[in-house]
Amino acid sequence: MNIAEYLASTLKNLRQAKGWSLSRLAEATGVSKAMLGQIERNESSPTVATLWKIATGLNVPFSTFIAPPQSGAPHAYDPDRQAMVVTPLFPWDERLHFDLFSITLAPGAISESTPHESGVIEHVVVISGTLEMCLNGQWQTVMAGSGVRFAGDEAHAYRNSTGETVHFHSLIHYPKEKKAGGGN
């Protein structure tokens, strides 16, 4: 099963396990009913930002959608130009309550993230290049070898204003009540 098929079946299974209609899922995620239906039918590839909205609305770890069990190296990306590529290094860990991702951001790319669920803390460490981040409405520069920790339950954005790809790691630490694949 490829990553798009995995995403489609996972979304449908999670929605049905909750007993939700597409309308109810749209209400919980802020993603249109039409888009959710297209994703479930594997007719559309969602952006990373859309996947975050869905994961937050379903109260599941982000890696639930991109890390099928026993897979190689699944990833999520912005399909229009692969502006942001997200590869799980360590998908959801039940004991530690985190996901760890390796992320690349193409030159000139920007990725805006809606707030994750309450209590999420994000740690970003730049491996190579220069990353700009918008936190609390203010842009700041994070150089290679540096990191920043922030509340992921507030809107934030990543931007690459340079001509070189930026590579960074993002550790997403979820509140203790999060359940892999199901939520509360």
Automatic annotation (TrEMBL):
Keywords: DNA-binding, Transcription, Transcription regulation. The keyword tRNA processing does not apply. Residues 11-65 form the HTH cro/C1-type domain. One of its GO terms (molecular function) is DNA binding. Pfam families: Cupin_2, HTH_3. SUPFAM superfamilies: lambda repressor-like DNA-binding domains, RmlC-like cupins. PROSITE patterns: HTH_CROC1. This is HTH-type transcriptional regulator SinR. The lineage of its organism: Bacteria, Pseudomonadati, Pseudomonadota, Gammaproteobacteria, Enterobacterales.
